Amino acid sequence: MPLSTPSTSPTSTADRGRRADEVAPTLDGPVPRSLGLLDQGAFWANLGVSLLGFAGVLAVLQPAGAPPLTIGAAVVATVVGTVIGSAMVGLSAIPGARTGAPAMVVLRGLFGGVLSWIPSVLNVVQLVGWGTFELVVIAQAGVVALGGPTWAWVLGAGIVTTLLTLRPLGMLRLLRRVVTILVAISVAYLAWWLFTRPAAVDLGQAGSWSGFWAGTDAAIAVAVSWIPVASDYSRHSKRVSTAFTAATVGYAITQILCFVVGLAALSLVGGNGDDVFTPMLAAPFGLAALLILTLRETDQSFANVYSTAVSAQNLWPRADRRVLCLVIGALVTVLALGVTINDYSSFLAVIGSVFVPLLGVGVGDALVRRRDRDLSRWAPSRPLMVVAWLIGLVAYQLVNPGGAPGWSDMWTAAREAIGFSPPSWLSASLLSFVVAGLVGAALARVERRASTPAVAATPGGQADEGGTTER
Question: Per the record, where are the segments of Low complexity compositional bias (predicted)?
């Protein structure tokens, strides 16, 4: 099924208004282009502020498989990793803004229709995981702030999240008009309060800079988790440039602020992530600020559930997004009742190893194949691009196996078997991105040369630089 574009046939004013108002239920519906810089900037800025981030900064301060960092090293790693990761998110927003296609449909042009199902399935899995964690942390913050049973908070957050996914563009407009202002005031107030405490940013632990790039990779991993969903939202952007700018700048500023505030809060509770909200509540207006951030956290769970449904539509294009959102919302709510936040760091390492090289392959391929690609459902398969992706993944894991049980042990054993000992200055994220990009570009050239004679031999055959014709 070719990617549909908004109809140009005569329509009534009321019909045009409906089309511009919301996302169509299926992939063959019209694509509204109604989001400007402020809409998208508010969306990404809100995603950068996360309750998970306040405690999640421990993954930067104490990276898996590496020595703990000093506070100064953790702050620098946060800034460097967030800027790199945010730029990657901005790059991944460009294809959606150009084509009007969601992220997993864009990958039909990179891998082919059927092979794009592989990253689609992986994306569904990681988004369900993120959505689950978000409900867990909302419940954790709610219990600390107001008390009550955890299950009630999980259930309430799950219901609100699911309802928001039914009108996604309306959710983005709400963020710009109301929520962003309240969040900015709350974060600024908490930052002022925490940093004026005598013990702020003193975790009392010895540290070094030797694990700097491992900590940087942890900060990158938080940001790049949004790579495979960026085009789900940028496809509604009025301009390509605003899609890139909003994602890169909006997200970077707020994630850095969120992580630094998290460091200050953790310093007041001895580095105990479970008590990260306690010093916030000690502020005179801390309860109000934390409640605002808790309610706003549903934008994180909203994005995860909504993009899970859109990713699933790459597998079932005619499935109704609203039905998928209801099912997925129920699933993450049930899962959130049985997991803990302690699994967070290991989850991040696996995410980074999968989606950073995926972006690298896309960039490398784009340098070779600059023209439009076939985004139809049965676009020709491009297995060489999958090979480039896997090579990038291997490069990441050999440098930073992470701490996930089983998975990490396998890659550590492989590294020892080949006698590879990565230097401390080597970043797994940057290495895998560059390796995947170079291999992707090289294999794209091989693919193009192999396909050119076949196209030339076909009478009247015309193809783009990748040797494919529109189906």
Answer: 1-13
Q: Residues 169-207: pLDDT tens digits? A: 988 888 877 888 899 999 999 999 998 887 666 655 567
**459 domain residue, yes or no:** no
CA-to-CA distance for 321 and 23, rounded, in angstroms?
Answer: 9
What is the C-alpha separation between 204 and 296, in angstroms, rounded? 32
Please say whether the beta carbons of 30 and 24 come within 8 A.
yes
Q: What is the pLDDT of residues 379-412, one digit of tens each?
A: 999 999 999 999 999 999 998 887 777 788 898 8
Six-digit token string for 152 = 């009630």
3-state secondary structure of 373: coil
List % helix, strand, coil for the chain (3-state, nearest 5). Answer: 70, 0, 30
| CATH number for 154 | 1.10.4160.10
Distance of CA 418 to the CA centre of its chain: 32
pLDDT in tens, 241-250: 999 999 999 9
Q: What is the DSSP string of 351-369?
A: HHHHHHHHHHHHHHHHHH-
Instruction: Let me know if residue 306 belongs to a domain.
Output: yes
pTM of the model: 0.84
Name every residue whose Cβ is closer than 8 Å to that of residue 174 and which is 6 or more positions away in sequence. none
Domain that holds residue 299: 33-342
Give the chain's end-to-end CA distance (angstroms, integer).
8
The closest alpha carbon to 346, from 305, 406, 303, belongs to 406
3-state secondary structure of 153: helix
Locate 200 and state its tokens.
Answer: 């702020």
Read out DSSP for 270-281?
TT-GGGTTHHHH
Q: Which residue has tokens 């790459």?
A: 314
* Residue with tokens 């632990």, as numbered in its chain: 205
Residues 6+ apart with CB under 8 A from 185: 289
CA 68 to chain CA centroid, Å, is 25
What would the two tokens of residue 150 be?
């955890």
Task: Determine contact, residues 223/82, Cβ cutoff 8 Å.
Answer: yes
The 10 Å Cβ neighbour count of residue 163 is 15
237 forms beta bridges with: 35
| Amino acid occupying residue 114 | V
Write out the two tokens for 224.
């790049």
Task: State the Cα–Cα distance between residues 330 and 62, nearest whole angstrom.
Answer: 34
Answer whether residue 383 is part of any domain. Answer: no
Decide if 427 is inside a domain. Answer: no
267 within 8 A of 199, measured Cβ to Cβ:
yes
H or E element at residue 410: helix 407-417
35 DSSP β-pair partners? 237
